[in-house]
From TrEMBL:
Coiled coil: none annotated. This is Uncharacterized protein. SUPFAM superfamilies: Ribonuclease H-like. Residues 12-22 have a biased composition (Polar residues). InterPro entries: RNaseH-like_sf, Vacuolar_transposase_reg. Transmembrane segments: none annotated.
């Protein structure tokens, strides 16, 4: 092998690894002293001091680890033949020859794929409460790829496969064929599914209806994160917001494209302690426009300092200046006021997206975040220079989105959460009632082929549960754990079986987006001709390797604009805030992290933004979904949280006996007379 100009490893075993085995002492003057003898915690194998030929098993193990590294890091297989990598491997082990890319792709890659698929099939055999999600993606070769995977709440998803439908119509019927083929790939029965989750364009809505008609026991719902993201886009569709977003894009485009002025901006940023850069916009994420607005707002002082310089506005010795329209935008106070208003109005929804983008989030968590965001919008103070039309548009948009997303299934999940039942059923004007829980539960029982006897007991269970009667008293933040406990017998109380199904649903399709993100990392300018089967293989392997490296731990996403919670289950602080502090006030007119994945060169134009807004019209909720209320109905009339001030963090409904005796033996109970009290009241 060529050593690429590096000195060949010595054949003398005494010299092998000398820099580690015999570290050199330096005195204060920096001179070499006597070599130290390495201290070992125990016996050391002789292989640590001398090289030897590797056994076939050791060679194959090393080759497989190299394959896993290349796949997970998204590095082309031809890198295994790079002279420097070969030289590095020979320094470590002179007898180890790296496998060629042919050996990696033809021998080890199929074996790894077979191993992972076999493990997935075995794992799937014991799973029966799976959520299926599917979505489409256009790769760098403009191929229309549809990915399908299965997930359980709180665990790693299982990739079923990719299907190329380029040149075909993506109809609901074709998508049904795609997911059925994906299920067959790993021997999964539709009986193992509890829910189907997709985003919400017209085709996907039709596909969900078609799927449920064929498999009536499978629940179907929209992706909650996509719905929140869509509402961010709708808020941003106001003319004032669109103009602000276009100006932000113009500022980011200029400074990320000019090496000189970007460098000058970086110098000012370092002096001011600004750590984040100007963010790019991701076409599929409306909330990334808000993150971009946040990054621009953080750079206001630095941008202004740069744009008022003489050489920024007037050319000196023929050098380039900052574009005049960029200078005007940076020095325009109105733009910064509108940008700050845009951030304030969209931040509740953006924070909700960040809080829910994890594997632990349940349907009840989604509803709690939605209610909290609606509360923040309803009580948001209007600042002196705000555009009132924009504020009213945003509040109306959130109310409309709230009513669309407040479906029977999502409300029922909140009702079944032991800490959320009093939030779900109240005396509010438009609150759903216990009778709605009866109706929803019976519809589910019928679709799951429950007996009439079980249905009758289910109604009795719901009534007991609503009242907090044993064994349904109390509650904890993690609803699934509470329902899984031994105190409630599932045979005697069928509501337990229903609740466990509901709390097994993964309410969003973030995992399919992660799959496409991984595949996007695999494709590159130098590696863009991968076949669809190869991309499917790499996607399956990367999904498995991610789980191996995290030890199966649930990944909680972190964003630069906020911090997600470390614990799973209902957010007790948020629940307490909702049930104690929601009072509708009239708005008063007086009133540091690492770079995230959104940083990079910005190429979006105002035309791109207009085109994206036009696509919002294709994203709607199903007819008849939600609670059926108009956007002029205030949220607090649907969830009367002001009546639930007694709900404390971690405190469930008290048993009836305890409530009945709550006022017994109160201080001063023997110091008053009924007749005297009536007279004092004028009766």
């Amino acid at each position: 092998m060529q050593n690429a100009g590096l000195e060949a490893p010595s054949d003398n075993p005494d010299s092998a690894g000398s820099s580690q085995d015999n570290p050199i002492d330096l005195d204060e003057a920096g001179n070499e002293g006597v070599p130290k003898k390495r201290r070992l915690g125990g016996q050391s194998a002789i292989a640590g001091y001398m090289d030897r030929a590797m056994s076939q098993k050791e060679k194959e193990t090393a080759d497989i680890y190299l394959l896993r590294f290349l796949v997970h890091a998204g590095i082309a297989f031809r890198a295994s033949e790079h002279p420097y990598l070969e030289a590095w491997a020979h320094v470590l082990r002179s007898t180890y020859n790296l496998p060629s890319r042919y050996v990696l792709t033809e021998k080890y890659l199929p074996g790894e794929e077979a191993r992972v698929i076999s493990e997935d099939i075995q794992r799937l055999k014991g799973m029966s409460l799976l959520t299926m999600m599917t979505d489409g993606w256009e790769d760098d070769l403009r191929r229309a790829l549809y990915g399908t995977l299965l997930a359980e709440l709180g665990s790693r998803p299982i990739v079923l496969g990719l299907e190329d439908i380029s040149g075909q119509r993506a109809t609901a019927e074709r998508l049904l064929e795609v997911v059925e083929l994906a299920l067959k790939k790993k021997g999964v029965s539709a009986k193992q599914l509890v829910c189907l989750v997709t985003d919400n364009p017209t085709t996907m809505r039709a596909f969900r209806r078609l799927f449920q008609a064929k498999y009536p026991w499978v629940l179907t719902t929209y992706c909650f994160l996509h719905a929140l993201n869509t509402n961010v886009g709708r808020i941003s569709s106001h003319p004032a917001a669109k103009e602000t977003l276009s100006v932000n894009a113009k500022i980011v485009l200029f400074f990320n494209s000019s090496h000189y002025w970007k460098g000058q901006l970086d110098l000012i940023k370092r002096r001011l302690g600004i750590k984040r850069g100007l963010k790019t916009h991701t076409a599929t994420r409306w909330y990334s426009l808000i993150l971009q607005a946040v990054s621009v707002q953080e750079h206001r002082t630095a941008l202004r300092e740069l744009c008022v310089r003489d050489d920024a506005q007037q050319s000196t010795n023929g050098y380039s200046v900052i574009k005049a329209d960029v200078v005007r935008a940076v020095l325009d106070a109105t733009h910064w006021q509108r940008n700050a208003q845009l951030i304030r109005l969209c931040k509740p929804l953006v924070d909700a997206i960040g809080n829910l983008e994890n594997r632990d989030a349940s349907l009840a968590d989604c509803m709690l975040e939605l209610i909290a965001a609606a509360q923040k919008m309803a009580t948001m103070a209007i600042e002196p220079m705000d555009d009132l039309g924009f504020t009213h548009h945003a509040q109306r948009t959130v109310r409309r989105g709230f009513h669309e997303m407040n479906t029977d299934l999502h409300w029922f999940a909140l009702f079944l959460h032991p800490l959320g039942r009093r939030l779900a059923v109240s005396s509010a004007t438009n609150s759903r009632k216990v009778t709605d829980a009866f109706r929803i539960a019976l519809d589910l029982a019928k679709s799951w082929n429950w007996s009439e006897e079980s249905a009758k007991q289910l109604i009795a269970d719901i009534q007991q549960y609503t009242n907090g009667e044993a064994p349904f008293s109390g509650g904890i933040a993690d609803a699934k754990s509470w329902w899984s406990g031994p105190l409630i017998n599932s045979k005697a109380h069928p509501i337990k079986a229903m609740a466990l199904r509901i709390f097994s649903i993964v309410p969003h399709s973030a995992e399919i987006e992660r799959l496409f993100s991984n595949l996007g990392g695999v494709q590159s300018v130098k590696r863009c001709r991968l076949s669809v089967p190869h991309m499917e293989t790499l996607g399956i392997l990367r999904n498995q390797y991610n789980d191996d490296l995290t030890g199966g731990a649930t990944v909680r996403r972190q964003h630069a604009h906020m911090h997600t919670r470390d614990s799973k289950g209902l957010d007790l602080d948020k629940l307490t805030s909702l049930t104690t502090n929601w009072t509708l006030n009239t708005p008063s007119a007086s009133e540091n992290t690492d770079e995230d994945a959104l940083q990079g060169p910005e190429g979006i134009t105002s035309e791109d933004i207009d085109r994206a807004f036009a696509e919002l019209d294709q994203i709607r909720m199903e007819d008849g979904s939600g609670d059926g209320l108009s956007d002029d109905v205030a949220v607090e009339t649907v969830y009367a949280v002001s009546e639930l001030a007694k709900v404390q963090a971690g405190e469930g409904i008290k048993p009836i006996e305890e409530v009945a005796a709550e006022h017994d033996g109160a201080p001063g109970s023997s110091q008053w007379d009924p007749k005297s009290l009536l007279r004092s009241l004028g009766m």
